[in-house]
Amino acid sequence: MNVVTITGVKKLYKMGSETVAALNGVDLRIDAGEFVALMGPSGSGKSTLMNILGCLDRPTVGSYKLLGKEVSGLSDDDLARIRNKTIGFVFQNFNLLPKLTSLENVALPAVYAGLSSKERLTLATEALKKVSLEDRAGHLPGELSGGQRQRVAIARAIAMKPAILMADEPTGNLDTKSTGEIMEIFRDLHKTGSTIILVTHEPDIAQAADRQILVKDGKITKDIITAHSDEVIDIV
Amino acid sequence: MLFTELLKMAWRSLAANKLRTFLTMLGVIIGVTSVIALVSVGMGVKKNVVDSISRLGSNMLIIMPGSSNRGGMRGAAGSVITLTFDDAEAIKNKIKNVAYVSPTVQSSYQVVYGHENWNTTVTGVIPEYVSIQSLEIKSGLFFSEHDVDVRNRVAVIGSTVAANLFGEINPVGKKIRIGNAPYTIIGVLSSKGQSSGGMDQDDVVLIPLTTAQERLIGITYVRSINVQVSDADKMDEVQSNIEKLLRQRHRIREGAEDDFNVRNLTSLMETVTSTTTMITLLLGAIAGISLIVGGVGIMNITLASVTERTREIGIRKAIGATYSNIMLQFLIESTMISVIGGIVGIVIGIGAAQAISKFGGFTTVISGLSIAASFGFALFVGIFFGMLPARKAARLDPIEALRYE
């Protein structure tokens, strides 16, 4: 099943009198259970594509079907509800709320989903177990190491069992050892069936994925399946 | 469920910045306190005035002789001797809805008992005076209709006179001298305290009207006639009937000026009440301005807090907080500040009002309305001034907010 179907997506910005295209006609399909690395130099439109995929932004032109449902024309609040239930975010700088404990941070999406405290506790504990941090449930982010913080962030991202897990340079602020741990977690999640989109500019990290997509000048220039074959699909 | 979580979030965020929260709250506390305290002072003034007017008796009309208007010179009111005991009798007999009619004469005398003497006002009255002035007899009794008819030399004295002439002795049955004639004291009045004008209402000697007119002062007219109307709604009707009757009795031609005045205490009361209410409202409004300033303080801090927490807002939005979730979170914070500030302000305001009456000597009346109004206004201020920052927070673009350092 297609989780993501993007057709003819353009994102245009007005810079004074000129119109700049951050994305200039992108088509992309991602199936359930895929582990995709989204690559490209800065300014390539990779971040814009990620924001659109993550329902943080809308395309100016084109269609985006998430789980078969058109989302490009939805309101801010509808997009917020989709992010809440269908998308999990992992950021480069963790983005945990410093005054909430690990458990509370992980339970936060469930709060906005309107779940009861009992359900929230169950979901959050379960998610923390998956990143092996249940013993740090009561700690504040400030009391955790970088790697542990990112694991809490991953737990928060997967707590609502989203259809897509989006990770934006998740290892950018981590040392080699923590990077290894985090990538291990992503691979484990992938094995258990999660659809993961990993945004990175590091080829080493991208290696972990089954499929690498290269974005350049607002277009997808390469789409390589790396896991099963060395087949290269040249789009341009 | 989500709402209780938002309440908890707001509470935690306020608790995390205790000093800042307290200082913001202080504006509301001062505002609510000053509204309650100042309004209580205003209401106290009003109560004082109203009390002293109503102590004169309710539904009261006071008829005074008019000023002289002969030869172009106008004398002082009461300088003409136009009202008589018969006028009072006529009002009592001919006009409907009149409960009591009490004509009085008054003059100052040196009152002597043994070696003690005291200068006081001697008032000639009839027994109805007791009801009309709501007097109470502490000991002895008041003189009767018969005493008035036969012009007996009996007197009822106020507690100030009793204290100055007799000290600890019971005055009832003793004889005092007024204008060289002996009067038997048959009763002592209960204390009424000071009037609004600062006059001692207990510094009085009451004797029968006829005795005062004929045996003491030597006059045939009365100084004033107090009329108590049986029904408040009938005040105007009775007043105009009295005016008609007196014009007729005094043979005043059509178009000529009255030789008497009828004063309506109820309308005086209305004027005083509306004036003091105005002053109270003005005091409350001035205090209310400090509440608005407090509200601006709330807005200021909440705006700063929104900017400070831009990234937090971005994170919350990214993981699914809607516009109204964020809006409510900040609105609850500002409302909490104003609600808690309001409650603290009410407590301090009531305390301040009591302190003012205890140590400042003012009468204060704490009104439930001023408490409710100031609290309601504080609540409104919290919501109103919280709205702008909350909207600002809720409208943040999550992408921009997440990028904010």
Give the distance, in angstroms, between the N- and C-terminal Cα atoms of chain B: 32 Å
The backbone outline of chain A, from C-alpha atoms, is globular
- Strand proportion of chain B: 15-25%
* Helix/strand order of chain A, N-terminal first: EEEHEEHEHHHEHEHEEE
- Low-pLDDT runs of chain A: none
Structural key phrases:
heterodimer; A: 236 residues; alpha/beta; Rossmann fold; 4-stranded antiparallel β-sheet; B: 405 residues; alpha+beta; 2 domains; 6-stranded mixed beta barrel; 12 strands; 56% helix; 18% strand
Please, could you describe this protein's structure?
The complex is a heterodimer of chains A (236) and B (405). With 236 residues, chain A is of the alpha/beta class. Chain A has one domain (33-58, 75-234): 3-Layer(aba) Sandwich (Rossmann fold), CATH 3.40.50. Chain A has helices spanning 46-53, 76-86, 102-112, 117-130, 146-158, 176-191, 203-206, and strands spanning 2-15, 18-31, 35-39, 61-66, 69-70, 87-90, 164-168, 195-200, 211-216, 219-225, 232-234. In chain A, a hairpin with a 2-residue loop joins strand 9 and strand 10 (219-225). With 405 residues, chain B is an alpha+beta fold. Chain B has two domains: 2-52 and 271-403, no CATH class; 99-228, no CATH class. Chain B has 13 helices and twelve strands. In chain B, helix 2 (18-55) packs antiparallel against helix 12 and helix 9 packs across helix 11 (323-359). Chain B starts with a helix and ends with a helix. The mean pLDDT of chain B is 87.
Task: Indicate the topology.
The complex is a heterodimer of chains A (236) and B (405).
Chain A: E1 2-15, E2 18-31, E3 35-39, H1 46-53, E4 61-66, E5 69-70, H2 76-86, E6 87-90, H3 102-112, H4 117-130, H5 146-158, E7 164-168, H6 176-191, E8 195-200, H7 203-206, E9 211-216, E10 219-225, E11 232-234
Parallel strand pairs in A: 3-8, 3-9, 6-7, 7-8
Antiparallel strand pairs in A: 1-2, 1-4, 4-5, 9-10, 10-11
Helix pairs in contact in A: 3-4, 3-5, 4-5, 5-6
Chain B: H1 2-16, H2 18-55, E1 60-65, E2 69-70, E3 73-74, H3 85-94, E4 98-113, E5 116-125, H4 128-132, E6 137-140, H5 145-149, E7 154-157, H6 159-166, E8 175-178, E9 181-189, E10 204-208, H7 209-217, E11 224-229, H8 235-249, E12 260-264, H9 265-308, H10 310-318, H11 323-359, H12 368-394, H13 398-403
Helix pairs in contact in B: 1-11, 2-9, 2-11, 2-12, 9-11, 9-12, 11-12
